[in-house]
Amino acid sequence: MGDGPTRRRKLLNLALALRSYGDERQVVPRLQRLKELGWVEEIPTRLQRMLGAIDMLRFFIVPCAADYYRSKGINFYFHTLLRFLDDPASLIDPTGLNSARDTIIGHVLQVVHANPDYDLQLLESFPDGLHAMEEQIVAILGGTHPRAASLLATVEDPEYHDRLLAYVREFRRRQPMTASLVRENILDDDHFRVLERTFGELPRAMRYFSKLPKSPLGAARHLLSVRRFPLHLAEALYTERPARVGT
User: Does 43 score more than 90 pLDDT?
Assistant: First the structure.
């Protein structure tokens, strides 16, 4: 949790995140920028984004993480508590569209991701997002990051940040990826692969969100009746990755 000033700063960041949660004045410009960069084809409505965040959480993020922690002998609930104590603001926004730049970066540094592509693409909604991401990974590896101790105590794989740095540098240079950072428990499970293909990258997740109901009644019906991931809305097996526009 850190010392007194650190704890107060965390609570302040959490309060700011809650206050600005769902503020379309902040979210829409970021989505517009992502659309201009080629990461979003169609901007889902606010209701679709809310519904999509719930689906992403209940069908993909939580079950995939729980499975991964079981394979590592880590208690899911205790690890989630550690993540909350390290950065409370990072756990309240599944899509990241309401989160500040450094909250997203801290989230990527804090936990081995099923696929970090979604968050790296999301960071391009900030002009300096990827640059700041690379700088903070370097600081973690050099031991100079102000949250180094808590992040290294929380991350599940001590070699994760080394792999992440190389991956981010390739991503920033628009180079073809020479290695995948898709988590191993995803690769070993057919159902998880379908979920990762749908939610693991920003363009695909936004396509899924755009297929969801737009009316409150339709959204309520979806939440109450859909208990399993709707395979008919899943991303097709072969889809071309969108071309990125230089920044």
Answer: yes
